[in-house]
Amino acid sequence: MLSDLSEVIQNSQRPLTASQVKGYMMMLLKGVALCHENSIMHRDLKPANLLISSTGQLKITDFGLARLFSNEGDRLYSHQVATRWYRAPELLYGAQKYDEGVDLWAVGCIFGELLNNSPLFPGENDIEQLCCVLRVLGTPNHKVWPEITELPDYNKITFKENPPIPLEEIMPDTSPQAVDLLKKFLVYPSKQRISARQALLHPYFFTDPLPAHHSELPIPQCGGKHSRQRMQPPYEFTVDRPLHESLVDPSLIQRHARSCL
């Protein structure tokens, strides 16, 4: 039985402990680091795309929007990617040239949600989403984000000058090390965001309480509304069964197939 991280957060009877948050974050960062080291940009990291096994292990799933990226950064991509609450500010400003930093922003949003037990930037539309970000991090300008004037939608909308709100005030019960790491993800310039590999070496993971082992993390509850159950016999396949007995009847998956066009 598989569940996802959003269900774990929502169904927890009490907020996750600091040790549990560290455990989930370590697994997430290891997965993201592996993707980025192989030039894969996920582009839709969010709690619902992080599956949790019955033993507490976290796996990144749904690579439908994933793309290869290069250090040259001259390839054009769609800015209509990533679920809104986890969408990087450059995407909200219509950027078509971007890099793995969009994933790192999403990781920061997921981290904040784990710490706060609720989404950091829950906008109901793209404009409100940008407002949510600016309300916390402050109105960006050329000094803090030199590339902002080059973004396609920069001149299409203006916002009132707003100073940043210290993250310590938004999450007063969070440890200084956790807030420091969160700040390193949630910065406007993509190139300044901490990489997944660097984040794994942050002091946050080496101070008490230490990260929980996956066996100590919350186990998804059976029968959840959105839980993803394994296929039941006779549609459960193992390597011990003859190949001809393990072939999938196309009619079973036809309704789940989607066009690649």
UniProtKB/TrEMBL annotation:
Matching entries from InterPro entries are given as: CDK (IPR050108), Kinase-like_dom_sf (IPR011009), Prot_kinase_dom (IPR000719), Ser/Thr_kinase_AS (IPR008271)
Superkingdom of source: Eukaryota
Please list the residue ranges annotated as the Protein kinase domain: 1-205
Catalytic reactions on record: L-threonyl-[protein] + ATP = O-phospho-L-threonyl-[protein] + ADP + H(+); L-seryl-[protein] + ATP = O-phospho-L-seryl-[protein] + ADP + H(+)
Give a yes or no for keyword Zinc in this entry: no
Q: Which PROSITE patterns match?
A: PROTEIN_KINASE_DOM, PROTEIN_KINASE_ST
- One annotated GO molecular function: cyclin-dependent protein serine/threonine kinase activity
Q: Is Plastid one of the keywords UniProt gives this record?
A: no
Keywords from the UniProt entry:
ATP-binding, Kinase, Nucleotide-binding, Serine/threonine-protein kinase, Transferase
Under the heading Pfam families, the entry gives: Pkinase
Q: Which family does it belong to?
A: Belongs to the protein kinase superfamily. CMGC Ser/Thr protein kinase family. CDC2/CDKX subfamily.
Looking up PANTHER family in the UniProt record yields: CELL DIVISION PROTEIN KINASE (PTHR24056), CYCLIN-DEPENDENT KINASE 20 (PTHR24056:SF171)
Q: In its UniProt entry, what is this protein called?
A: Cyclin-dependent kinase 20
